[in-house]
Write a structure and sequence with these properties.
Length: about 90
């Protein structure tokens, strides 16, 4: 019996290119995570897929995870890496 391949709804495939500024250490971490995910899954995993998964994970975990993220953002800002405008 032939296996039927389910297609992903068109709405879920819409991607938008965004530009982010990353430091060399973050780029290296992103590459490492991508390689580890590729090894785990058994197929190539892009850096974009890692970033999308991280954002979804923080969102799903709720306020405690978001608070931990905000603490890291504050560390970035205190280190002098500020992107965006001060309110």
């Amino acid at each position: 019996m032939a296996r039927v391949k389910k297609s992903i709804p068109r709405e879920e495939l819409q991607l938008t290119v965004q530009t982010v500024t990353l430091t060399p250490d973050v780029i290296e971490t992103l590459r490492r995570l991508s390689q580890e995910a590729s090894d785990f899954i058994g197929r190539k995993v892009s850096s974009s897929a890692i970033v999308r998964a991280l954002v979804r994970q923080i969102d799903q975990q709720g306020p405690p995870a978001a608070d931990a993220l905000f603490i890291e953002v504050e560390k970035e800002m205190k280190a002098g890496r500020i992107w965006g405008k001060k309110k």
